[in-house]
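A common beginner's mistake is to predict each chain separately and then try to dock the pieces by hand. The better habit, illustrated here, is to supply every component at once so that their relative placement is modeled jointly.
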Amino acid sequence: MENFIEELKSIGNSRRLSFSDNFYYSADEKTIMGELPFKEILFLDYRDTEAGSNPREYNGLKKTNKSILTSLLAHTEMFRFLHSGIIVSLTDTMISNKHLIEYGDCCLTNGNQTRFLVLIIILLKIFSEEKSLTGITQKEFNTFLKSNFSDSQKIITILQRVTYSKVYQAVNFLKGNNKYLKNFNEMNLNSFANSKVRIQINLIDPILSDLEEKLDEYYVGTLIAEANNDTQNVRVDDIFGNKYKAELEEYIFKTFINQKKDKVRIEYRLGEIIDKVDKVHILTLLRPIIATGILTKEKKIFEYTNQRAPIYKLFEKLLRNKDKASKTIETISKLSLLLYDIRKTYVEPLLDLQKKNFLREYKGKAIKGDLEDTIINKQISSAGGNEEEIEKIIRPYVNYNVEHIFPVLVYRVRKIIKEEDRSGKIVFPLSKDKTPEFFKALIEVIYRKYIETKLKGLPTSLTTFVRSKEFYETGEETYVALKHSYSLEESNYIEDNRYLIG
Amino acid sequence: MKIAKGIEKYERFENNIEDLIRYAQEIIADLPYERKILSKQKEMLLESLLLRACALWESFIERELIVSINLDPSQLLSKFDLPEKTNLNIRLTRAIVFSDSFRDFHDIDRSMSFFKEVIVDKLNPFKKITRIQKEKIIFAYKMRNYLAHYSEFSRMKLFRAYQREPYKYRIFLEPGKFLLKQKGKHFEELVNNFKMASIQMRLILK
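With all components supplied together, the output reads:
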């Protein structure tokens, strides 16, 4: 086994691809196609390399990946005929014969999911040679990786993506499927590692040399990676985050990054930060900005609730107009920090508490017979006073999505936000001891409306409701009362810094 | 009028219990804008709040007992061999109920059989309390008794309750530790149970 692991490491550390048979090399020297043994693809780079950056991380055992896994286990020999294969971009290539390519940088632009699944199977197979797979613990797995692969930084970087939770999904799958467990147990590691996968290679340097436009390798590689992934079910978040990372860092999240430093890291592609640090996804920071109305007309604020693609499009346009909209961008940069702090300090914890309060309240109402006018009346009656049953019936109606409630809260309080005279910092001008009560009152009203509407029965869908003017108008009276009782003054700060796009 | 007053009484008790739960949950939640509180302190606080909830419950059922009797005192008059036409008010009812011996309401089974003797059946709200609610009240009182006495006997009683369903513990846990488990889930369940029992009792007014 030691020899096998050494062989894998040697392949992983080399910047070479060794083909089993002669490959096809196009006459214009821009394309190579052929077949590679699995062991050759295990540690190919895929992100932030000179050859580009793949927007997609390993997703875990979702539907498609489960099919790939079963295909790998049940039809290893047939795999290359059943799947379209992988695509790779390479820079600084040297081709001495039709079996071997040496390269400078590599980006696995398509087939990253397959690669990780092959890697997980091989790791589990090696692990199971010495220990039982079914009882695998996080500690055991991490020790196994460390003792065998820690001497190679390049390999460790890839292995960091193979978290225990992802590996355990595969183990669980095998435990629950005897047929595939049998395939796995009977599998010969060497022959599996030498099974083939089809590969297409884009040779970046020759491609670049023929382009009229002056582009760099990273740009072209990423362009290919994104185009490869466009046709698949890739998260629009990952494409946007990947493409605009630098600009987002420099403009939109500038204040956030300066303030939070490494305490909270921004995730530009879902799942990319695997360290145990506080992290926030770009969408969490961008969405509440919309609710302030700094970029759109009122109608669009409602429409964009809990959306993804239109929000990215909006920010794409904003970044394209960054010279004209510099004042707005600076304001957004400050707003994203303030709104994030409000969300984390008040909104999320208070919503969590309020959920518990509402569960108790509505359970009581159900027993008292106060939910007779709701759509769950029949279910409640048939529960016959059984508290546990009643709680099960009520829970889905009390559950909430913070992305539905937070924008309405931001919309409601946006005029309170103002710029401090001296520092230029933007603030929510209420003392720290009064702020929790202020948000608590508004959250309760908005959240109650949300539950009551669900309980009454939605005329269309919950999504339509949370994107309605009616929902955004919730809490208006409470807001006015709070504003007066805390002597708060509204400001034109957001309005003065507005740059309308949508 | 009587029904409205009756509902008000239930609501007052339920709100008091709700306040206790909310206060406890805010402490347990480690809210980012509040001062951090050590687990040990949280445990002590939950123990005190449980004692307080029990006290509120006892005071509530004592009042409820007197009011329920007063709505139709015939059963009480018969138990105490008093003339049928005795004209009773709240104070007098209280005096009669507590005249013959010391009464507390720690033992829900014993209390309920006494209530049955003195309240006419159709007005007895205590019979609305469900079996599960009663079991939870019994458990809460085992904990309350241990916290009030720290005696070996009360400890043993509580430990036996821990060992049974739904907890099935093998080791003894100090009440504070138990109540704090799963972000105060046990505390919420036990204390909210008093409120749910009250809500159930209200159904007698329907």
